[in-house]
């Protein structure tokens, strides 16, 4: 009986945790820039469906546009780089959330940005974090472009 309780409980815990794992899917973005970027979106936003979070991210990710940003992007563009946007916002009014944007090229880390979600997002739907996502990706491209202007390697 103890075995059933011990192993049954561990199986139950494992299955319940599997339900909390976030869904991830690959999208192609910034298609006008070289071959584009493969975007991975993961995380959760206060119990909203992943499709709502995905829609907010796809509408707000910034692509490289300035000359130095495009130069830096060109250095990592083949094969297409991967960008991971991860959002964690627990359920409950007033709970803080976190946003992380990471860029990988040729299987190596290139650059990342991490920031807390603004206070406006604490009580709103995932569409309220579009500005946060845009700011994080704009900062990522600016930081990557500054490597060009300071003659630093694009991939550390």
Q: Could you characterize what this model shows?
A:
It is a single chain. By secondary structure, the protein is α+β, with helices and mostly antiparallel strands. The chain has one domain (22-149). The chain has helices at residues 2-18, 50-60, 67-76, 130-149, and strands at 25-29, 37-45, 82-89, 98-105, 108-116. The chain has a five-stranded mixed β-sheet with strand order 1-2-3-4-5, with helices on one face. Helix 2 crosses helix 4 (130-149) and helix 3 (67-76) crosses helix 4 (130-149). It is elongated and about 45 Å long. It starts with a helix and ends in a 7-residue tail after the last helix. The model is unreliable at 11-22 (pLDDT under 50).
